[in-house]
Amino acid sequence: MLRRRRAPLLLAAAAGAALAATSATSPSADGLGVASTLHGVARSSRAIYTIGFVTMDYKYSLRGLLPGSADYRGKLSEVHLRSAKKLLRLCEANRGFYVKAGQFVSSLRQVPKEYISTLSCLQDQATPCKYQDIKIVIEQNLGKDLHGIFLEFDEHPIAAASIAQVHRGRLNNNQEVAVKVQYPGLERRMKLDIMTMSLLSKYVSLIFPDYRFEKILLEFERTMSMELDFTQEAKNSERTASCFRKNDVVKVPHVFWELTTKEVLTMEFCTGHKVDDLDFLRKADISPTKVAKALIELFGEMIFIHGFVHGDPHPGNILVSPRGQGRFSLVLLDHGIYKELDPKFRLDYCKLWKALISLDVQKILELGEQFGVGKYAKYFPLIFTGRTIDSKSALGTQISGEEKTRIKQDLNSLGMDDISSFMESLPPDFLVILRTDGLLRSILGNLGAPRHVRLLAYAKCAIYGHEEQSRLGSAPAAGEVWQMGLQEGGHARLKGTCSWIQQIVQLDGWTLVLLSLC
């Protein structure tokens, strides 16, 4: 009874907080301030209504059904889809950080498939801000007249997303630049949206005590706060450029620090096409599989070796720039969201992948305890490699029909409380890994890359990252140290200092032999 009484009070608190937050930062006499306040209340009210409806839909639609039964599973899927569509409409109506939140959720492979398929259509696009408002932001931040800074400046943005838009310009020395400008008043709006989401998360937890999403929300808030500081983005960009300075495939735009502040970022202008633009790749005679291989090795090195990970690798942030004769560069953009992995976590994650490749059940379960996921560790092989923990199938091959049936039965027994418990028990670093890996797998799928491309790249990186941990800070590009030759139907020898047991892994008709090099 107390829980039922507290829920409406919490909804009322959310509405009151929305009004207070916008009023406190906007002068009431100012027409713009009033408009901002009303807009903030409308956005929060829309969110409160939607989440309230979704929560009640779950509560009453599943009432009286036996968890795990066919009726329960069927009805649960219906509610998932109905709720996902409502959240999609909410994100499309509120735009901004709600779109970011929807994209964040859809990139987590652990949420129900109905949410992934529905929310994955969200595009991080926005109606461009008026040129005069952008001009004011630039001049206030750089302390000069815009025409005194740029020889040319295109008034029409080449891209507009939820937090900023990008303009093409030319400096007085004829250097072409891309100028990223943050929308006015964005930080205030973010605080309000996060406050509303936090209160609604608490409301859901009151109705469903087993549903806990605080960690996901905290991770989302952390990433958004980072993304709003363009000086941090510039630092991330330079650090990544340093990590891959010996890799001639990776290109990171140069930052012009004298024209960069918290709200304005000026970078070298780089040309290219989205990494999964297959029509462009065909016309440029560039192999999609080679692009996929270069991409996954780039992120494998980030994760397993450098422990400094780009957290938003969607196709718009990775460009392919042709260099002739089928060669190309990968241009890495938007360095606002990064995660520096805890050294122990990075090492344990390397160990996990070694265990996944060899299907060392005991080690997987042991690492699951260290990661804090307990009984859910048995799903690690399924999440990362597509086979069960007791699989008899070779890595990278199709699993048997019997295994598929067993997986389906096992997953059908899981409820939303299991998913919630699993997500809440994961270390923050793991959430970033899961999201990044989900986005990368989607790109690889669009490129039509064989499954073994990702598995092989991760296996190599994990082995090297584990064995060479002492050289983490100054490790050369992975391609220089692995020196792997891989031939179809043949063998590959990993040249390094790894002291791993011999493993023979079948990868879609390819044989990878990881030899003991003691």
Automatic annotation (TrEMBL):
In this chain the ABC1 atypical kinase-like domain maps to 122-366
Entry superkingdom: Eukaryota
Signal sequence segment: 1-24
Cite the entry's keywords alphabetically.
Signal
What Gene3D superfamilies does UniProt report for this protein, alphabetically? Answer: Transferase(Phosphotransferase) domain 1
Entry's InterPro entries?
ABC1_dom, ADCK1_dom, Kinase-like_dom_sf, Mito_struct-func_regulator, TAT_signal
Please name the CDD domains in this protein's record: ADCK1-like (cd13969)
Q: Name one Pfam family in it.
A: ABC1
PANTHER family given in the database record: AARF DOMAIN CONTAINING KINASE 5, ABC1 FAMILY PROTEIN
Concerning its family, UniProt says: Belongs to the protein kinase superfamily. ADCK protein kinase family.
UniProt-recorded name of the protein? ABC1 atypical kinase-like domain-containing protein
Gene of this entry: LOC123069221
